[in-house]
Amino acid sequence: MTRDFDPRTGYDANGRMDPKAYDAILLASFGGPEGQDDVIPFLRNVTAGRGIPDERLEEVAVHYRSNGGISPINAQNRALKAALEAELANRGIELPIYWGNRNWHPFVNDTLKQLAADGHRKVLLLGTGAYAGYSACRQYREDLGMGLRETGLEGVVEVDKVRQFFDTPAFVNPFAEGLRDSLEAVRAQLAGRGDTAGRIKIVFVTHSIPMGDANAAGPAAEHGNRDQNLYTAQHLAVAKQILAQVPEADGLEHSLVYQSRSGAPHIPWLEPDINDALEEDAAAGVAGVVVVPIGFISDHMEVLWDLDTEAKDSCAELGLAFSRVPTPGTHRDFVSGLIDIIEERLLDENGLPRRTGRITSVPGGPWFDVCPASCCVKPALDGTLRPTIAGVDSEVGVPQP
């Protein structure tokens, strides 16, 4: 990778940004309700601008209502924030971590105001999406671009973003560890049925997205396949790396499937859905499945409902042994690796880069610090483009905003 920084822009030809003296970190996530009264207001925020009536939102609300109206995602982000703070302290890095959400308290705009009130001016954003794409990357960049404008902090507070981390051992290693354990669990279930020779399949799963969003992320040129969208290719590359670390998986079938499709039925989304795929697997003679949720960093509602409830129930009805691999959460390797990625962007006490190398173990990485102008573009409902951070303005060729 080219290491020559352009002094006019502060980033190199590969979209890597020059380390800076940041004074705070912002952990940004999706957000979720924390009580029954929060559920519909939260879902209104998620679907804002789409004109979806509350009666339809109640159909989705059952996922949260069955859990007391509480999404686990906020508690998981609090735990991740605490774990990251502890790792920073262990390394002697004195940077406060703030937390802001897209759809529920604490909202990003409120957090930006607090950052500014506390005197912070150079902020490094850590989003909780691992892959390239609109929802996992660009939407966070838009959240902060819009937030700075709406709060009047544009030009006052500077926010940059760390790279996507799908390619790092931090993300891959916890899944490999969990796959070993889940394979053992499924084999034990089958042995308990007297079926020691039953076929086991490894089912990698991620969030489905509209085909338009998948194509906007770009073709998978770096994976040698220009006909495959980048989102799918990155997940397949992660799955391959996980399998390479688990000898116990040698010779087993595996597939990539999708979950949590939403939106208008006439709009094509990535397929197959996990429940449809499980039916086909059972019909083909598979006896047990290990589900590996490689699209997610924590066991939030879509994991608990779509996998631990619906997919697990599908397996019970189909007679399939089932085990689901945990997401990284606060796994020691994940937390340590995220701080490694943050250190790539920091200067030490002598004004020198804290970390000169970039760890990557999956084809397609390391990803950009500063994204190309056309990266994952998705116009607003009125056809306009939202302001973003950590991107290149195509007209002037400098970072936004």
What does this structure look like?
With 401 residues, the chain is an alpha/beta fold. It has a domain at 169-324: Rossmann fold (3-Layer(aba) Sandwich). 37% of the residues lie in helices and 14% in strands. The chain has helices at residues 39-46, 54-65, 73-90, 108-117, 134-150, 169-192, 211-216, 230-244, 274-283, 301-318, 332-343, and strands spanning 24-29, 97-101, 122-127, 158-161, 199-207, 219-220, 225-229, 253-259, 286-292, 321-324. Strands 2-1-3-4 form a four-stranded parallel β-sheet, sandwiched between helices. Strands 8-5-9-10 form a four-stranded parallel β-sheet, sandwiched between helices. Helix 5 (134-150) links the parallel strand 3 and strand 4. Helix 1 (39-46) crosses helix 2 (54-65), helix 6 packs across helix 8 (230-244) and helix 9 (274-283) packs parallel to helix 10. The mean pLDDT is 92.
Radius of gyration: 21 Å
- What is the N-to-C succession of helices and strands? EHHHEHEHEHEHEEHEHEHEH
Sketch the major β-sheet: 4 strands, parallel
Assigned CATH architecture of the domain at 169-324: 3-Layer(aba) Sandwich
Poorly predicted regions are none
